[in-house]
């Protein structure tokens, strides 16, 4: 094993960091999209009449069933086929976001069902509409229950942002490949650095989610917060 | 016209006919108690009155307005009918105060300060002003049920429906809930109560309705039903339930 080319490694780090910033931008976009669509799909599956609910199940099946890499290709090249010009970055956000929305929808559906019909009934009994009940009674509880499984999805999509490189987004994985291409001896250390980046982000993200969970813990409620022991 | 008129309500779940034509009336300020074996449609009846469950057939009027008409704004109606559930169903993520306040703010459109004052008044009425900031999971069952009564009262209901309000409570907590209900009846609240508490039925009800298998078997003032019921089945049920639950409640 050759000695580590420290100089080139250190010089590569700023480039890697600028790439990582792109991953974070994709992450932000895909999570926002996945969250919004995911909640909508969950609500439709639980509360809407059968034909519409079936449509939501079909949506979820499609975006959970097609490999992410294939989704990226379908959306990026597919839209171009129809003369819709989108950047690789936008295509990545959409493809990964829709995929995540399907996974997130099942997190939210489980949580909504765990809150239960009785809470809905109590809300209706004081005269709230179903939308008011969902907004003020069901979702505040369901979102709390969603945090632990949602942290799983977060950790997963965080890493999936590197897949965007497949349609030409210059993000951290691609940058690492560039650096490696200049000097193959750097392959191991450079990817170790990339691995450390993601380990750190996973840690930071999950720490923040844990803090969120503790912040919104319902006093005295059986479902105890992060780190609580039984 | 009576405050509440229920006419020929029918409801079936699959093959099972839970309600098979129930009719009765409730006057302003009156308390009626519905008794009967479990599974005879008492809870379904209550839920059909404010259409938390849609009846298959039959009509309901509240204060002259037909509740069961498709043109009626059911949310308006529900806001005028308090509902107290067997298992309290307080909003678990909200404090006692917020549980009582939510409907005032979201349904009645009341300002926050006014809603808070009103909610605190109702909490005081059920003896829980000091628990305003407690969450449901921090309260005993009896306290939770009293908060849920305060939640119903805050909306200024014309009528409160109680669905076995003490059945989920430990025996030593039943009294505090019944006490609140007795005070309400004395204050002139119109109440329709499904319960197994015969002591309460006997002392508070203006009239008792005995239901079985989806129909009203017999109804009348408690002194008549308890001492000389017309139907033998009523006598049999009352004897059994009194043996089981005792008379004091």
Given as residue ranges, the uncertain stretches of chain B (5+ residues, pLDDT < 50) are: none
Total beta strands of chain A: 0
| Individual helix count of chain A | 8
Q: Write down the overall mean pLDDT of chain A.
A: 93
- Can you tell me the overall shape of chain B? globular
Approximate shape of chain A: flat
| SS content category of chain A | mainly alpha
Our count of helices of chain B gives 9
Report the end-to-end length of chain A measured between terminal Cα atoms: 50 Å
Order of helices and strands of chain B: EEEHEEHEHHHEHEHEEHH
> Could you give the order of the helices and strands of chain A?
HHHHHHHH
Largest interface: A-B, 22 and 29 residues
Specify the oligomeric state.
Answer: heterodimer
Q: Provide the spatial order of strands within the biggest beta sheet of chain B.
A: 6-7-8-3-9-10
What proportion of the residues of chain B form beta strands (DSSP E)? 15-25%
Averaged pLDDT of chain B:
95
Strand composition percent of chain A: under 5%
Main beta sheet of chain B: 6 strands, mixed
Could you estimate the helical fraction of the residues of chain A in percent? over 70%
């Amino acid at each position: 094993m050759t000695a580590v080319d420290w100089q080139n490694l250190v010089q590569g780090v700023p480039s890697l960091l600028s790439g990582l910033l792109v991953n974070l931008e994709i992450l932000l976009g895909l999570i926002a999209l996945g969250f919004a669509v995911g909640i909508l799909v969950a609500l439709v599956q639980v509360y809407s009449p059968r034909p519409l609910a079936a449509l939501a199940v079909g949506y979820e099946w499609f975006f959970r069933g097609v490999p992410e890499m294939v989704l990226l290709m379908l959306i990026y090249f597919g839209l171009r086929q129809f003369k819709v010009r989108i950047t690789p970055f936008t295509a990545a956000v959409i493809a990964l976001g829709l995929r995540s929305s399907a996974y997130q929808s099942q997190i939210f559906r489980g949580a909504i069902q765990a809150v239960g019909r009785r809470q809905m009934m109590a809300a209706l009994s004081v005269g709230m509409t179903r939308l008011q009940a969902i907004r003020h009674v069901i979702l505040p509880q369901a979102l709390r229950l969603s945090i632990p499984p949602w942290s799983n999805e977060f950790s997963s999509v965080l890493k999936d942002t590197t897949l965007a490189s497949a349609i030409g987004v210059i993000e951290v994985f691609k940058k690492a490949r560039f650096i490696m291409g200049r000097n193959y001896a750097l392959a191991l250390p450079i990817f170790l650095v990339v691995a450390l980046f993601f380990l750190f982000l996973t840690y930071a993200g999950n720490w923040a989610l844990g803090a969120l969970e503790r912040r919104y813990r319902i006093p005295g409620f059986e479902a105890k917060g992060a780190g609580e022991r039984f | 016209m009576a405050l509440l008129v229920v006419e020929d309500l029918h409801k079936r779940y699959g093959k099972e006919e839970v309600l098979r034509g129930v009719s009765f009336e409730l006057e302003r300020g009156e308390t009626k108690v519905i008794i009967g074996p479990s599974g005879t449609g008492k809870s379904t009846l209550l839920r059909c009155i404010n259409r938390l469950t849609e009846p298959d057939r039959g009509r309901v009027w509240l204060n002259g307005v037909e509740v069961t008409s498709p043109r009626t704004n059911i949310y308006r109606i529900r806001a005028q009918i308090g509902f107290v559930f067997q298992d309290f169903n307080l909003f678990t993520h909200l404090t006692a105060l917020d549980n009582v306040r939510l409907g005032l703010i979201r349904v009645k459109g009341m300002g926050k300060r006014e809603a808070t004052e009103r909610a605190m008044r109702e909490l005081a009425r059920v003896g829980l002003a000091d628990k305003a900031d407690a969450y449901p999971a921090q309260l005993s069952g009896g306290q939770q049920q009293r908060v849920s009564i305060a939640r119903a009262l805050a909306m200024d209901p014309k009528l409160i429906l109680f669905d076995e309000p003490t059945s989920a409570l430990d025996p030593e907590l039943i009294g505090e809930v019944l006490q609140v209900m007795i005070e309400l009846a004395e204050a002139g609240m119109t109440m329709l109560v499904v319960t197994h508490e015969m002591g309460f039925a006997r002392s508070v009800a203006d009239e008792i309705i005995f239901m079985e298998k989806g129909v009203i078997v017999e109804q009348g003032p408690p002194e008549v039903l308890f001492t000389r019921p017309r139907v033998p089945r009523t006598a049999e049920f009352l004897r059994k339930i009194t043996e089981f639950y005792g008379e004091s409640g």
